[in-house]
Amino acid sequence: QVQLVESGGGLVQAGGSLRLSCAASGRTFSSYAMGWFRQTPGKEREFVAAVNWSGLDTYYADSVKGRFTISRDNANNTGYLRMNSLKPEDTAVYYCAARNSVSGSTRGHDYVYWGQGTQVTVSS
């Protein structure tokens, strides 16, 4: 079992930055890949970024490539999503997720464990 708790969301102006954190507990942190997804009311959950067990392989949605950076600190059981140059369309609830594999994935159904989400609101 893996428990995930996100933090770091909030209200920020367009062009600003936020760093989301995902604190993990349970299984050995380096034994699974992690991902970040987001969702707005009335829309399907959307892939944002993913990272493999070591942090060396990363994947990004086209909409965030060059602005967001996913990383992980296996020594401290924490994943991160650094978000720069935020836009109003980035407004959403952001979820971190873990899957039973060391390889990252862009597909939500590949992930088994999910956090409760953290709200990110970007004002124009």
- What global shape is seen? globular
Q: Please, what is the average pLDDT?
A: 96
**What is the first-to-last residue Cα distance?**
40 Å
Number of strands: 11
- Report the biggest beta sheet as strand number plus sense, adding barrel if it closes: 7 strands, mixed
* Radius of gyration based on Cα positions: 13 Å
Q: Could you name the ranges where pLDDT drops below 50 across 5 or more consecutive residues?
A: none
Which features characterize this protein?
124 residues, seven-stranded mixed sheet, mainly beta, four-stranded antiparallel sheet
If you had to describe this structure to a student in words, what would you say it looks like?
This protein is an all-beta fold. It has strands spanning 2-7, 10-13, 18-26, 33-39, 46-51, 58-60, 68-73, 78-83, 92-99, 113-114, 118-123. Strands 2, 4, 5, 6, 9, 10 and 11 form a seven-stranded mixed beta sheet that branches. Strands 1-3-8-7 form a four-stranded antiparallel beta sheet, with no helix packed on it. Strand 4 (33-39) and strand 5 form a beta hairpin. The relative contact order is 0.32.
How is the secondary structure organized here?
Elements: E1 2-7, E2 10-13, E3 18-26, E4 33-39, E5 46-51, E6 58-60, E7 68-73, E8 78-83, E9 92-99, E10 113-114, E11 118-123
Parallel strand pairs: 2-11
Antiparallel strand pairs: 1-3, 3-8, 4-5, 4-9, 5-6, 7-8, 9-10, 9-11
